[in-house]
Amino acid sequence: MTYALGIDLGGTSIKAVAVTPAGETLAQTNVPFVDRDMEWAHKVRATVGQLEHERGGRASFVGLSAPGLAAKDGRSIAIMPGRLIGLENLDWMTFLNAPQPVPVLNDAHAALLGEVWLGAARGLRNAIMLTLGTGVGGAAMVDGHLLRGAISRAGHLGHISIDWNGPKDDFNTPGSLEHFMGNKFIAQRTGGRFATTHDLVQAVEHGDKAAEETWLRSVRALGCAIASFVNVLDPEAAIIGGGIARAGRLLFEPLQKFVAEYEWRAGGYQVKLLPAQLGELAGAYGSAANALGAVGNGV
Amino acid sequence: MTYALGIDLGGTSIKAVAVTPAGETLAQTNVPFVDRDMEWAHKVRATVGQLEHERGGRASFVGLSAPGLAAKDGRSIAIMPGRLIGLENLDWMTFLNAPQPVPVLNDAHAALLGEVWLGAARGLRNAIMLTLGTGVGGAAMVDGHLLRGAISRAGHLGHISIDWNGPKDDFNTPGSLEHFMGNKFIAQRTGGRFATTHDLVQAVEHGDKAAEETWLRSVRALGCAIASFVNVLDPEAAIIGGGIARAGRLLFEPLQKFVAEYEWRAGGYQVKLLPAQLGELAGAYGSAANALGAVGNGV
After folding, report:
1. How far apart are CA A135 and CA B287, in angstroms?
2. I need a surface site. Which of A82, A218, A247, B216 has the fewest CB within 10 A?
3. What is the homologous superfamily of the domain A4-111 according to CATH?
4. Scanning every residue of chain B, which has its alpha carbon at the shortest distance from the alpha carbon of A149?
5. Does the A123-276 domain belong in CATH 2.60.40.10?
6. What letters, b where the CB count within 10 A reaches 16 and e where it falls short, cover B161-199?
7. Which helix (H) or strand (E) holds B284?
8. Domain map of chain B by residue range?
9. How far apart are CA B84 and CA B100, in angstroms?
10. Cα separation, A49 vs A127, whole angstroms
């Protein structure tokens, strides 16, 4: 039986799916690792071996995603400083001894492809994805093309400046969306009162007015950024994922309101705001979709 | 001889070129009109007739660009409220009695295609264009694809918010790049001291310190926006055109500095800042390129 493996190498675990070309899931797994001595690489190889063993034959297609910027030829991650030492320029076809190329994607790019293939953006040709977590990740598909760009950096939507006089983030962007929404800046944004966005949202749920004000400021920043993305990328939908999106209606209801305030609704057209559906498996499904050529126009 | 006609319908004049598939210019013309009773439409038809008459035979390819959002099928402008009454949904193939479809583009999209075909972005697969004039126009090509989007709105780069608490522009965007750089806001930005950006730049040239401060604020806003576009669209080059770009080194020197301050230079990669080369004919050349399928991957 023809099937694909999609592997998403994260910061602390490997998510993998075995899936048919029609999108039927045959197996899924989550393998934690410690980031030392390329343990992640050996565990990816072992995971592929295990999944192929279970299916009784090699996968016809294998795709992989990981943090960092993919190489031009799509066979490796070219740029990923500081973490996952050994990942840069590792050719996954060679490393996995695969019978054919193993296409490699940035993890956020893969997550969007996954949502377009089998999730919230199913069948859309114009969609953006925002992953609200420690940082704010992103990716964009326009006219059926996943945007990659000159060095596969396109879609870093968390690093748009919405406050040009604000402090710079890790990527040199002043007052970025990530600064306003990323969990890593929550203590800074709340004067140390909250350690996580989850705590903040719980306080909002319990009627804490100061917490609500802080939270709505973040949501308004997100709404403003989405209005900019509408003008630059013209999506049919913005898919919102990541841990912070679990806030549910506490996120989506005010977000609808802020987007309505800032969106250019040419011809009455409105962007849809949709929660992501594939959770932490989005990247694995997207990697499989990439290997299968299952979505969009290809590159 | 096989040739193409590229027509750019502007706000006050029609620019047209006759050009070979190899990019050799055979003729060019600029026909002013008054925006009433569809004078522009009849003058486009007369211009096409005149150019075809001069060449002794009909053009093999005709492309057109105009303000507004192009229709999904690329045969007309679907949305253009308030000006050029009669343009919306006018099918140009029918109107021009052309032997084959006349592909229609948004004017900023066409200008970028022109610069990619024969101008500053020649041969690039990843480029953005910013046209600094009354407003701030824009367009983007990523991975060889001109970005159009769900309703052909992609690339409205002037309408990115860089100051989320700023006043809203015509498109509902708070503190937009257009607000900081567009000529239409110059009196507002300078407390009525300058009526045009040209006057402001002349004062800078003559050593006026207050004027310089105002001007550098605009240039810094542009640099900040370009840094955001680098993260979202990942271009090799930003092409800067429009009347305000004639400021030359007074624009480009500080702009380089501000972009250096804000740009994420992953792997040492730097976006190039290049003056547009085709001036007011960019849209006409881009319309011809679009009809010829001369640049990029098509859609």
Report:
1. 41
2. A82
3. ATPase, nucleotide binding domain (3.30.420.40)
4. B234
5. no
6. bbbbebeebebbbbbbbbbbbbbebbeebbeeebeebee
7. helix B282-292
8. 4-111+281-292, 123-276
9. 24
10. 34
At residue A298, does pLDDT exceed 80? no
pLDDT beyond 60 at B51: yes
Note whether B161 contacts A228, CB cutoff 8 Å: yes
Around Cβ A81, how many Cβ atoms within 10 Å?
10
The tens digit of pLDDT for each residue in A7-41 reads 999 999 999 999 999 999 999 999 999 999 999 99
pLDDT in tens, A152-189: 999 999 999 999 999 999 999 999 999 999 999 999 99
From the CA of B264, how many Å to the nearest CA of chain A? Answer: 5
Contact B102, B130 (CB under 8 A): no
- Going by DSSP bridges, is the β-strand pair B13-19/B4-9 parallel, antiparallel, or unpaired? antiparallel
- pLDDT band for position B1 (cuts 50, 70, 90): confident
Give me A168's structure tokens.
């710079």
> What count of CB pairs under 8 Å joins A to B?
180
| Chain-chain contact of A154 with B142 (C-beta, under 8 angstroms) | yes
Q: Are the beta carbons of A254 and A271 closer than 8 angstroms?
A: no
Q: To the nearest whole percent, how much of chain B has pLDDT over 90?
A: 97
**Same topology for domains A4-111 and A123-276, yes or no?**
yes
Say whether residue B241 is in contact with chain A using an 8 A CB cutoff: no
Q: Top-level CATH class of B4-111+281-292? A: alpha beta
